[in-house]
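Good morning,

Attaching, inline, the backbone tokens for the sequence recovery test we're adding to the shared suite. The designed sequence is right after.
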């Protein structure tokens, strides 16, 4: 779907839906990564492949590190502080620990995959042998966040905590929080 037809992303005043929208954008890039080896085999590193790879690189180099920081520095601690509230899930500390531990693995895997993607962006055909495992881990990671973390955050975090999360996310990106 062309970008101009997509609904606008939620703002920092709606941080949980903004994180979900970020997950949607991640999945779009993962879908492209999964199709890319077949495209490279059929058509080489043509203009279309190079453009797609540049979009992938731009997203995972720019937005993804902020996304991990949003979770590790802000969302996960807010959830841990909510322990004991009605609706708390005793499995959450272990899930958050697992997710936080996966972030460095995802970043390391990205660093390796990125080398091949940069070569494709310059017109070289590469096998992208690291892509499949990295895409699988990323999809599993997103599923765990969307199945456990985001629904719990929606149930447990109050409006002040959500505003604090949204303000931290905006500050990290150097943008103003809506309404000041």
């Amino acid at each position: 779907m062309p970008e101009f037809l997509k609904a606008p992303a939620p703002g920092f005043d709606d941080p949980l839906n903004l994180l979900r929208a970020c997950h949607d954008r991640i999945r779009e890039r993962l879908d492209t990564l999964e199709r890319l080896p077949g495209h490279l085999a059929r058509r080489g590193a043509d203009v279309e492949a190079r453009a797609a790879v540049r979009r992938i690189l731009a997203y995972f180099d720019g937005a993804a590190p902020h996304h991990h920081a949003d979770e590790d520095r802000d969302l996960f601690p807010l959830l841990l502080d909510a322990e004991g509230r009605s609706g708390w899930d005793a499995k959450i500390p272990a899930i958050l620990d697992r997710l936080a531990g996966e972030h460095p693995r995802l970043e390391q895997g990205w660093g390796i995959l990125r080398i091949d993607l940069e070569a494709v962006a310059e017109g070289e055909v590469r096998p992208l042998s690291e892509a499949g495992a990295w895409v699988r881990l990323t999809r599993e990671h997103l599923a765990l966040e969307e199945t456990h973390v985001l629904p719990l955050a929606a149930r447990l975090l109050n409006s002040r905590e959500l505003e604090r999360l949204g303000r931290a996310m905006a500050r990290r990106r150097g943008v103003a929080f809506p309404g000041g």
